[in-house]
Design a protein that fits this description.
By secondary structure, this protein is α/β, with parallel strands linked by helices. The protein folds into 2 domains: about 250 residues, Aldolase class I (TIM Barrel), CATH 3.20.20; about 70 residues, Arc Repressor Mutant, subunit A. It contains 15 helices and 17 strands. α1 crosses α10, α2 packs parallel to α3 and α6 packs parallel to α8. The longest helix has 19 residues. The chain is globular and about 55 Å long. The relative contact order is 0.11. The structure holds iron/sulfur cluster. The site of iron/sulfur cluster has 11 residues, from loops.
Length: about 375
């Protein structure tokens, strides 16, 4: 059975960061109870899709989920437990922003059943934070992490970025070293990229060049390894095997229900056909649709070529790479369909292979986008 998880989108932020391409909406206030009751209605529909399958993880993403009260999060989690069969080891993650961190809220989330907080620190340098338009400062981030600890979260992730405007290698190193002082079990450490349609893409800030980025990455990777963190995905590091199970399910082409404004889902039916779902993006429109006929606006079938590309796009991000057994189970295709593409990947020394599967080589890791592009539907 393909694992199933549930993504819940909570779309509002205090302000909009200029690099962000998420479905996030800046608003000073919002109608929390109306949105929550709409989520509950939508869970009723989504439960029909889940049928007798068990939910393995729930992820509250945004936007800024920590703007929601513990009462709201408890109501949502209670509804999830009522509507779905949930695993006894259910992982429940909630994204929190330092700017909206609140001691009582964090404790309330923990009591409601959230067992993992993901805190969007991004940097501990006030100048860097200002340059990327974040609404919080270094001190807010430190306080938020302390609140998470005091609330009893033994599992927390820190989101940290490098390659920020005008950032020097020593500043990126200092950010990581400061993060490690808090001993998070998990670090998402990723490079700032210019996403189409964002203010940063329209008017790019002065970013470090490719050589400096590579130097930052190599130095940072060394620091993390020496501190006992293992990299299991391009941007994800953890201690003691504490991977984010929800995200691993994405990267392994598992199924997930997406509920909330603009949420995406991916489902495999009994005959192995794969569908992607999308919900109405605007929060007001989404609530109106949820209160009427339902908030899903799109359901796209994935043909064999798309399944192969999507699978490889996720699995090649994993340090462990692609297991052939998983490839065949998730795409419904035999591994031999990749023969031609793999010949090219080998010729460019982009993959390391074993009888059980393959992973990106050291060179493939550096040129991961190029490696993934080899698997585009028209190329396979
Ligand atoms: S806080 Fe996060 S979701 Fe909100 S605008 Fe900034 S990057 Fe986007």
């Amino acid at each position: 059975m393909i694992p199933l998880s549930l993504y819940v989108h909570l779309p509002w932020c205090v302000s909009r960061c200029p690099y962000c391409d998420f479905n996030a909406h800046a608003a000073p206030t919002f109608d929390e109870s109306r949105y929550v009751e709409c989520l509950v209605r939508e869970f009723g529909q989504a439960a029909g899709e889940a049928r007798d399958r068990t939910i393995e993880s729930v992820f509250f993403g945004g936007g800024t989920p920590s703007r929601f009260s513990p009462t709201a999060i408890r109501r949502v989690l209670d509804a999830i437990r009522t509507e779905f069969d949930c695993s006894s080891s259910l992982e429940v993650t909630l994204e929190a922003n330092p700017q909206s961190a609140d001691r009582e809220h964090f404790a309330g989330y923990r009591e409601a059943g959230v067992d993992r907080l993901s805190i969007g620190v991004q940097s501990f340098d006030d100048h860097c934070l200002r340059r990327i338009g974040r609404a919080h400062g270094r001190e807010d981030a430190c306080v938020a992490i302390d609140f998470a600890r005091q609330a009893g979260f033994s599992r927390f992730n820190l989101d940290l970025m490098y390659g920020l405007p005008n950032q020097q290698v020593n500043q990126a190193r200092a950010d990581l070293e400061r993060a490690l002082e808090f001993e998070p079990e998990h670090l998402s450490w990723y490079q700032l990229t210019l996403e189409p349609g964002t203010p940063f893409a329209v008017k790019p800030p002065p970013l470090p060049d490719g050589d400096h980025l590579w130097e930052m990455y190599q130095e940072g990777a060394g620091i993390l390894e020496r501190a006992g963190y293992a990299q299991y995905e391009v941007s994800a590091w953890c201690r003691d095997g504490a991977v984010c199970r929800h995200n691993v399910n994405y990267w392994e082409y598992g199924d997930y229900l997406g509920v909330g404004a603009g949420a995406h889902g991916k489902l495999t039916d009994d005959s192995g056909e794969v569908f992607r779902t999308v919900q109405v993006p605007g929060p007001d429109d989404w609530m109106a649709a949820a209160e009427a006929e339902g908030a899903e606006i799109e359901r796209q079938h994935r043909d064999a070529g798309s399944r192969i590309f999507e699978f490889m796009l996720g699995a090649l991000r994993l340090k462990a790479g692609v297991a052939w057994s998983l490839f065949e189970a998730r795409t419904g295709q035999p591994r031999k369909v990749l023969s031609n593409v793999l010949a090219k990947a080998r010729a460019y020394s982009l993959v390391d292979e074993s009888p059980q599967g393959l992973c990106a080589s050291e060179r493939g890791w550096r040129y991961l986008n190029d490696l993934c592009e080899l698997f585009l539907p028209d190329s396979v």
